Amino acid sequence: MEVVEKGVRRLTFALPFGIDHVHCYLLRSSSGGWILVDTGLGSADPEAQWRPVLDELDAPIEQIIVTHMHPDHVGGARDIQELTGAPVLQGREDYDQCVAAWGHRDTERFVAYWTSHGMPGLTIEGIARESERLMAAVHWVEGPQLLDPGDEVDGWRVEVLRGHADGHIVLLRDGVMIAGDTILGGITPAIGLYPNSRPDPLGDYLQTLDRIEQLAPRVAYTGHRAAVGDPTARAREIRSHHIERLSYAQQALDGEPLSGYDVSLALFPGDLPPTLRRFATAESLAHLERLVHEGRAGRAGLAYVRTGI
Ligand SMILES: [Zn+2]
User: Is the backbone of residue 9 left (phi > 0), alpha (psi -120 to 50) or beta?
Assistant: First the structure.
């Protein structure tokens, strides 16, 4: 555990896939306890995972906040909730998404979605196998205290910043943003279109970048990698990145209708393992939907065609 700021500690867990780590944060509460933000993946042995953390703390964890419903953020919520008895707080919209993603599994719908976007059967089988494994590590909590934008938790203001996840919340106080994955240094947050997504996640995310510039926090403590020391500048960089990727996606539409999967092969070439191809396809779909919203692409059934010049 690392002190990153007076009253803010960072706790890092290793991840077995993709990015190799995730950061959780501990915020000193006004009563001298701790508020845990994010929980890593669920563990087969919660005691072994969390006891060293609890032993290192000088006071109990009083509340557990989840920034968003991705496995590496919500996954350990039930583990630490059971160990501490602390209540879990989660964004209202994010909780709905959490229930939709992890609450009831609909394999048919899952397969139909990726098939309709052009993904080959073998890749879908691979994704299904990997997501089965992932499900086992998502120990989310039913019936959390629901947070809305503008709520305050012990002096930290809640905002919803959409895009990486539809109902992603962040916490803000005195120029400090506990950002989850809304902004990251060195890598760009994944923005993907999924079966339960809002219709234009990249459009949502571009608004989030505007909002971060407006808020101009001094620092953003992020879910992965190093903290972002100049979130405004980083928001501008990430916006330029997406503007560039949007033109690549438009250029990939060269006449014939193409599926999201086809476009992902142009934007993310190479032989990717199934889960990474899923990210690539979801990300390509988010870009294609943005192009449709901007009038730069059209739909041909579930495929996309270039419009205009
Ligand atoms: Zn995430």
Answer: beta
